[in-house]
Amino acid sequence: MTESRRMTERYGERMIVTDFKECHIKEAQRIAHENYDEERMHTPILPEIEIFPDLTNFAANGLGVAAFENDRMTGFLCCFNPRERVFGSLARGCFSPIQAHGAVIENREMIYKRMYQAAAEKWTAQTIACHSIALYAHDHEAENAMFTYGFGRRCVDAVRAMEIIPCRPCGGITFEELSKADKRRIKELRWMLAEHMGKSPCFMRTERKDFERKFGAWEKEDTRVFIAKDGEELVAFAEISDEAETFAATQTADMCNLCGAFCIPRLRGRDVYQNLLNFVMIQMRAEGYNRLGVDYESFNPTANAFWPKYFSEYTHGVVRRIDECAFMG
Fold first, then answer.
1. Which tens digit of pLDDT belongs to each residue from 14-41?
2. Which of 7, 222, 12, 269 is nearest to 115 (CA)?
3. Are 94 and 79 in contact (CB under 8 A)?
4. CA gap 146, 315 in Å, rounded
5. What gap in Å lies between CA 156 and CA 136, rounded to an integer?
6. Going by C-beta distance under 8 Å and a sequence separation of 6 or more, which residues neighbour residue 20?
7. CATH 3.30.70.1060 fits 3-156+317-327, yes or no
8. How many CB atoms lie within 10 A of CB 299?
9. Which helix (H) or strand (E) holds 285?
10. Where are the domains of the chain?
11. How far apart are CA 33 and CA 245, in angstroms?
12. What global pTM score does this model have?
């Protein structure tokens, strides 16, 4: 056994993990802010955040933990209240966003392991079978801790400046923004996207009847839709929102986010979508936006091959599904 490993194990023995309480919030926010600034060193396009999100709700729900060594807080791990039927499954799940956890640099992997062990005991006691945590993309120690304890990567958040993507012109393709009344025109493109996400290796299947119900609700959402047309045929769309999965994207006035994207297979590889993105960014930049965010499933081969070429990853969402035997007896 190496000396560094012996020191880490001794540190683990000294660590105390307790319930996360309101009196821990100030120090937890300081740690979380430091972790965010670490990620900004790797992803400078991320906005500077002066006021970090409030953690009061995480202290109130009783599902969080905090780690200490000699009365010094070294980390915390909290989550939102549980939700039913997460990811379309029959499971109850909880989610820890990037502002709801953090750890000091020294012995970070061990801290996360011990905190998750304590938090998971709480979560499974409430029959929460699906555990989801958003980690910073460059925090390899936290990610190693979660992978060691059975997590796998599922989601990615990424960002880029509103700068034109160098690409080939695509003759015959035109671009426009749809009015809210015309959003229905991309219905079949959205269904093609749903079909794609239902196939291997994504397996995020949507029944047509459920799609019809969700599409009606989606039409009323306050989003903007940009399209590419080949003649009169709609061949791609990009949906833009001010809302996003992370506080960094939502709390920043000059950042908008892609919340839906698709290009028909026969036109992939011809720079159609790159040109559509350029059309979107020219429009949004003229309106005062300087950053464009996107989130996607890392197990979607099409998305995972496309987005990292043009966007910088800053979170990796990891998920673990607890086996049913944990809830027996």
1. 899 999 999 999 999 999 999 999 999 9
2. 12
3. yes
4. 14
5. 10
6. 28, 58, 59, 64, 65, 66, 76, 77, 78
7. no
8. 17
9. helix 272-286
10. 3-156+317-327, 163-289
11. 18
12. 0.92
